[in-house]
Amino acid sequence: VADARSALRLVAGLRKALGLPLEDFARSNAYGAGAIHANRTYGRLSALSALHDPALGPATYFADEDGIVLVYLPELDIRPERLLKEFGQPAARWRSRAGKQYLHHVLPGNGLAFSCRRGGKDVQLLEVFRPCSLHEYEAAFYDDPGPFVE
Amino acid sequence: MARPVQVSAAPPAVAGPVIRREVVKIGGGERLEVDDNLSTDDRKKLIKEAQALIAEIKSTYGVTISSTASVKAILKDYFPGKKAPKEIREAIQPAPWRLDELKNVRSALNNYGPLLGKLRKQAKDPAVAGSKQNVTTIGKVGKALSPDDSGPHGVEVETSTLGETFKSSKNVAFFEALSTADKNFRGDNPAQQRGTTSHELCHSLVEPQYLASFVSTFKDYWQDSRTRIADRGRKSTADPPAEAPISYYGGTNAGEDLAETSKFYFEAPGRLKGGDGAPKGTPGNPAPRRYDFFHRIVLSWTQSPKQVVKTRFQELASDFLSFSSTSLSDIVEAYEPIRLEFEKLSKDEQKQFRALKSTAADHYVDLLMASE
Questions:
Q1: Contacts of residue A42 in chain B, CB cutoff 8 Å?
Q2: What is the pLDDT of residue B7?
Q3: What ipTM does this complex have?
Q4: CA distances from B155 to A112, A118, A141, B180, B340 (A)
Q5: What residue ranges in A34-122 does DSSP mark as E strands?
Q6: How many angstroms away from the CA of A125 is the closest CA of chain B?
């Protein structure tokens, strides 16, 4: 994305997908039938369907039987402080599977989580989901990498 | 070189009979632990050997042993753009080497020999030959830092990290905890030292160029470099299960998977290919595809792409000829790589393979032909 505003617009766009039936979303956004994959997992959720086509964008949409529950972007070119300014301070900062020097910033009330390094200029592992409690986020989506020792 | 000077007493590295050690300066800001009960001559010999090793590492691999460089790299990464607080600076300090540790560092560097020093410029892979070396210093440090939101400075001073790569400083840190660790090689700390150092070197020397193709090759396990595709506790839930990393730690992210692959490739290739007894899909399973992936990378350092295919084909064919299983499905699954390689060969080369004088090979060639 070209700038912070575009990045924020992108995040807002991803939010609109939450709750929609995956097939409907795929059809209306020109995804081919082969872009939907069954039996995927994310965090602690299983039996999900995942929609991803790198030709149409980096996002992966994860859905259960009730529709899209999480949208995941591997990285986003926006300064972490800009996201925090927009969405508020994180309720928790946990270890991130992005790497030892990263912390996963969780803003469950705003339905947003992302990882960044101290002084980092971009964000990794951006997740957009329906607003929930910290406990609900942890129980559903958090993938604790454990301590990085090497 | 300056005359060795005793600077402080160091605690024994391992439990058991107390071995008194002293720490001596060996030049270049580095220090060495020596047993207190050594004769003066033996001590001088030991110091000379360490100094020669450090010089050899510099001249052969283009890597300076510098523990102060590691300390700087740690503080730079964890406190970017500002000075680290005093208590953190006091906690993160260079540590003295033991001679065997320097030898293990040299062994790990030697694993990547064609990518280092003067040999790098002669690498067959133009992407390697034309780029700068990503590791120029290695140091030993007592304690490590980890991000910690509850700490006063946002970090925790800890002693569980064994090694860490600091790409922005082209540095690898060897932490004191590695002096006694044996997490992957029970009872064999030297293997762990070499393995962990190889793991860290992989992060710097191999990962930047090969992570994307690693993810793409193992797309049945990795959705992207940080996300597994279908798993429960890092165990593949695909049907049939995908080949999982060789260790649980390798399931952290694809970069760690690749680095763990390198660790076992160099230190325990049989375990990488044959696993640690875990079933397919579970970390610790046989990982022949990961072995194959890394083996091709290593071959590519000294061989042209065509030579790599040929060498790998010959190796697989040789394995195949000694294969004793009578199960056709086992043969087909185990030797699928032969079929893939076979397709890449010229017609003449395919003829040569067909001419192999082995009933088993003939049988498999028939299978290959039938599948065409």
A1: 227
A2: 38
A3: 0.94
A4: 24, 10, 25, 24, 49
A5: 36-42, 45-51, 60-64, 67-76, 92-95, 102-107, 112-117
A6: 8
